[in-house]
Amino acid sequence: MTQPDPKTIMDTFRVRREPNYVPQANEIDLFKFAYNDNLPLILKGPTGCGKTRFVEAMAYKMQLPLVTVSCHEDLTAADLVGRFLLKGDDTIWQDGPLTLAVRHGGICYLDEIVEARNDTTVIIHSLTDDRRTLYLDKTEELVRAHENFMLVMSYNPGYQHVMKDLKQSTKQRFASLVFDHPAMDIETEIIATETGLDREESQRLAEMGQKIRNLRDFGLEEGVSSRLLVYAGRLMHSGLDPIEACRACIVQSLTDDAEVMASVADIVNMFYGETVGEEQPKTDN
Amino acid sequence: MPKKTTQPSPWQSHPRYGKLDLRKVTWGYRELFRTWIDDLFEEKILGDHNRHTTEVFFDILLQCDAAFHDAVMKAYLASVTGPGRWILSIPNLFEDWSRLGLRLAEESLHLSVRYFDGLRSGDFGPTPADVSLAIGQLQRLASIDPELVGYFLQGYPTLCQQLEPDEIRTFVQEALRVFANNRQTGLKYIALDLRSSAEYLRVLQHESRISDIQARLERLLRGITGRKVEVGGLSQLDSDDLLYRGAMVVAVASNIYLPDRLRYFEERRRNRAFQMLNAAVAATDIALDGFSNHHGQPGHTTVRQVVENRRIPRAGEAASLVILVEISRITNAIRKRFRGFRKILHEAIHIEFDQRPARAWVERLLHDTLIGYSKDEAIQNAIRFIDETASGSNSFHETVTAVQLAINEILPDQGWWKTHSAELAYGIRALSFFPDHLMPISLSTPPDSALGADLHDAADSETEDGSGEQADSDTSSDSEDGEADTGETGVRESQPDDSTPEDVDRLAASGPRVAYFYDEWSEPENDYYENWCALKEYRPDPSTIDELPGDWHEEARRVRRIFERLKPDEARRIKHLPEGDEIEIDRAIDFRMELRARRSPRIDYYSRPYILHRNLAIALLMDLSGSTGETPATRKRQNAPDEKCTKRVIDLEREAVFVLSEGLQALGDPFGIYGFTGSGREHCEFQVFKNPEEEWDTNCRKRLMAARPGSSTRIGAALRHTAWKLQQFPARTKLILLITDGKPMDSGYDPSTGYAQADVRRACQENLRDGIQTFCISTLENTRADLDRMFPRQRYVVIEDMTYLADTLSKFYLRLTT
After folding, report:
1. pLDDT of res. B269
2. Looking at CA atoms only, how far is residue B773 from chain A in angstroms?
3. B499: pLDDT strictly greater than 60
4. Phi and psi (nearest 5°) for A199?
5. Which residue among A78, A83, A162 sits closest to B735, beta carbon to beta carbon?
6. Global confidence as pTM
7. Please, what sign has the CA dihedral across residues B620, B623, B629, B632?
8. Whole-angstrom Cα distance, residue B25 to residue A131?
9. For the ranges A91-105, B29-43, B118-132, the one whose mean pLDDT is highest
10. CB contact under 8 A, B270 and A207
């Protein structure tokens, strides 16, 4: 039975190209300090504000493999730590994504951790304190975390839900980094570098995003994410009419409420339209 | 062709429907009527499965008097067996339509026949919404003068074809105004037999009305300014200065007033664009800290007053110059940032000066400043100064400072100033698209919040003394029975106890109320005031109202359907079981592999279906303070029925709670319904409409209908008591949904300290420690900062308009729990 070379496996998790990440504050330094001090990190922030991109950027900067797990409610402990597999006549143990990162070093990123069941999240507890160990009951093995191992999780605290929230016993094992929608100059920079739009157009898009975010809690559950602004910018850079691009990526993505949609469309028209409010007249039917 | 039969139809032997005796019908119609009714039964349109509609159907037929039986009945049956038979599938609409027809029949046989024929011939429009609108208007007209109905029916097909629902209502309103002046003219007007009514129809199709786009405008303005800005019609302002100045846009204290109707253009969309421009210009002035941000505040009656207060020489000229710079600053910002307004701004400038051409030098300066170009050298130099000053300014006050400096140091040397400055002293005229900064406005200082609350309480108590409604009896029983409570039932200390809801019921039924004491958190003291609030709990007597409003049922049915659709999602498979109905193949393979690896794996590869119980209990806590007796500030919503605007906040709360309760009943989540009000810490009232363990029955519904506005809002004690009620009920997840239309406001609260907000936050934290989550649905009365403070971790949602409550509450609940 030949086990795959761990180095080869972990190499597949390396981030090959430098992700475009524009720092918002001192998060890069904080991440490095947390890594050096073996502290697990939790990233909080609204949808599409750059949490995942930040982790990718840090993995690239620090030359660490990045093992990402998108959490969901059917995620079991075995999905994280590993399971036995049949190979010919043999039975071999296959490390799960968490065990891989723990054993060989790297960042294990559990995305949207609140989606996972509480009994699943409990298995990370021993990794997040001084022990830094992971016990595999099926193989009766205690895996001590590699010196390069770091656990990072993300979640959106604005997600109002009584059934889904992190337990205090989990929350209080992590240092926290709070993200928010970037300031306008930073968002301009993000849009410009991500989409190829010139600075003026990028700034227009960023300013529009800020105006739309003012509608949060007044019809919109969440403000428009930088990701959606970037999507719209890309379509615009590819030659699509800005109104069409914004309608597809922003207006129709943000809400299904027709009245709120009209209000978001008004803001889009204000920045890109010919004349705000001049929609087609109602047809007879 | 009617079928000839001698056998009685099955419905004729039915105990209820069989009361219709076709022998009373003219001989020639008997078989025809029977065939029509038979067809409706055969097609399953009528029958016990559609009981409500069927009962209404026969009820109408039975009430037709023999004198006009045949004609009305024939028209009625013909309409529901012809193309209009779809109406039978919408019970409420069918009932309204049928009963109005019967009412008209009592007035005039001809009118009723024509009315019923209207559905068959499609005169009411093609959709249920059209028919519903027509019925609403016809009911209104019939109550004024039944003759209006016939004339209205004549013109309605045209109205329906050419106007939007809101416009039809406006047209009817105008027709009734004409009718009030002259009956005959009014009848012809509503029948569209007059040229003036046809012209009004045309105007209605073209004009843009502020009421139609108010909500949309306010959201746009919120986007621009980042804060709440209300929009209203100029008709709300009562000022001679408005006429004198000819102002078209007035922006003051986060309120923007625009012309109620705009008819500049032949196309409505362009008129609407013009209205939106006006609003956006004023909002930009607010967002960029222009004069609109300060207008009306002390010392800011007009721009001229600001200039005079600064002791700037030549105040008249200086004020005009400041206004010109501000106009330049704001319009340039709009051109630069809001591309969508460039074109309409350009047109607005043209319209402004086409209608009122610039003749005086200062008016030409205004015009050329707006277009940024002039042939006149003096004006060119003036514009250069204005543009430079505008580009260096970030606010109105910076502009004033810059102008002051320029008048003292720079301008005296400039030629244009020497020759033309005197003309600036006449002032700048009001523009049709820019807020007028020379219209005198003085806002009165708002009263202290605590004083306002005291006055409100005083007003309430006066009303109660005088009216003698339920609130009256409640209040009197508070004062009279308060001592008796202590003596007879034993006032319970703090967190009680062993009393069950049945005890409470029994005690309530026998008169006195059960009282509880709760601590209250004082942030300044950083400690609790022990036993600070005396809270009295009682169950209101069920309302004597038997019928709930029809639209409640309609909305409840809709919500119930949505909630019922969630039920299948709750049916899951439980996996990883040592025994069960099915084998999970992946787990079984895992098991085999582990066995091969010579481990002793656990058998956990079975699964079985399982209905997941949500294990969730919810308490709906309604704010019943005095303000809930008022009608809310509403926004016009597309296709919203008119009557919603007349409902009080309490009506909307009751409706929302009723609708959600119907949904919760369908979903199976246990829920309690409570209300709170009071008057001071000694008299906190807590009303129990339903406890989680009770059935949602007629009594609970009637109790809910009996909810009445009280006095003040002391949220902390109510939250603590609701939490205690929930603690008595076994559920893993517990949730309080607080519905409030205002800030916590009670005697003894000092708004400057945020005492009440801190106590609410503390109560939420206490509840959370007990595993009870608290969420709030609030109106804009509470600022976001206050809500953040009271309900940490964004446990709140803000609704712009209380008329949205029923819809929002149900959606919010689903979002929280699914």
Report:
1. 84
2. 7
3. no
4. -65, -40
5. A162
6. 0.64
7. negative
8. 93
9. A91-105
10. no
Nearest chain A residue to B345, by CA: A275
Range from B273-282, B402-411, B544-553, B675-684 carrying the lowest mean pLDDT: B544-553
Tokens encoding B423 = 């003309």
CA atoms within 13 A on the CB side of B34: 23
In angstroms, how far is CA B66 from the centroid of its own chain?
Answer: 47
Contacts A–B by Cβ distance under 8 A: 145
Out of B222, B273, B340, name the one closest to residue A214 (CB): B222
Closest CB from B224, B344, B592 relative to A275: B344
**Contact assignment for B795 to A160 by CB distance below 8 Å:** yes
Q: What are the C-alpha distances in Å from B815 to residues A220, B116, B771?
A: 13, 44, 19
The predicted-structure confidence for B80-110, as pLDDT tens digits, reads as follows: 887 777 888 787 788 888 888 888 888 888 8
Q: How far apart are CA B439 and CA A262, in angstroms?
A: 33
Q: Does A215 touch chain B (CB under 8 A)?
A: yes
Closest partner residue to A161 (CB to CB) among B341, B593, B816 is B816
Q: Tell if the CB–CB gap between B161 and A284 is shorter than 8 Å.
A: yes
- CA-nearest residue to B574 within chain A is A74
Nearest by CB to A138, from B219, B594, B797: name it: B594
> What percentage of chain B reaches a pLDDT higher than 70?
83
Q: How far is A128 from chain B (nearest CA, A)?
A: 25
Query: What distance in Å separates residue A284's CA from the closest CA in chain B?
Result: 6
B807: nearest CA partner in chain A? A257
Residue B437: which residues within 8 A CB-CB, separation 6 or more?
Answer: B291, B292, B295, B302, B303, B323, B326, B428
C-beta atoms surrounding B803 within 10 Å:
23
Q: Give chain A as a DSSP string.
A: --PPPHHHHHHTTS--S-------SSHHHHHHHHHHTT--EEEE--TTSSHHHHHHHHHHHTT--EEEEE--TT--HHHHHEEEEEETTEEEEEE-HHHHHHHH-EEEEEETGGGS-HHHHGGGGGGSSTT-EEEETTTTEEEEPPTTEEEEEEE-TT---SS----HHHHTTSEEEE--SPPHHHHHHHHHHHH---HHHHHHHHHHHHHHHTTBTTTBSSPPPHHHHHHHHHHHHTT--HHHHHIIIIIHHH---HHHHHHHHHHHHHHH-SSTT-PPPPP--
Q: Which residues in chain A are contacts of B272 at CB distance < 8 A?
A: 277-278
Report which of residues B442 and B365 the model is more confident about: B365
- Residue B730 exposed, middle or buried by CB count within 10 Å (0-12, 13-18, 19+): exposed
pLDDT band at A161 (very low <50, low <70, confident <90, very high): low
* Average pLDDT score, chain B: 80
For the stretch B101-143, pLDDT in tens is 888 888 888 888 888 888 888 888 878 888 888 888 898 898 8
Asked if A163 lies within 8 A of B280 by C-beta distance, the reply is no
**Are B537 and B492 in contact, with CB atoms under 8 Å apart?**
no
pLDDT, residue B285, reads: 94
B254 touches chain A (CB under 8 A): no
Residue in B216, B269, B815 nearest the CB of A259: B216
Q: Is the pLDDT of residue A3 over 90?
A: no
Is the Cβ of A270 closer than 8 Å to some Cβ of chain B?
yes
Interchain CB contact of A238 with B (< 8 Å): no
ipTM above 0.90, yes or no: no
Say if the Cβ atoms of B340 and A263 lie within 8 Å.
no
Residues 88-117 of A with CB under 8 A from B: 90-91, 93
Q: Which of B782, B739, B737, B802 is nearest to B764 (CA)?
A: B737
Confirm if A177 and A31 have CB atoms less than 8 A apart.
Answer: yes
Least confident of A220-224, B183-187, B637-641, B661-665: B637-641
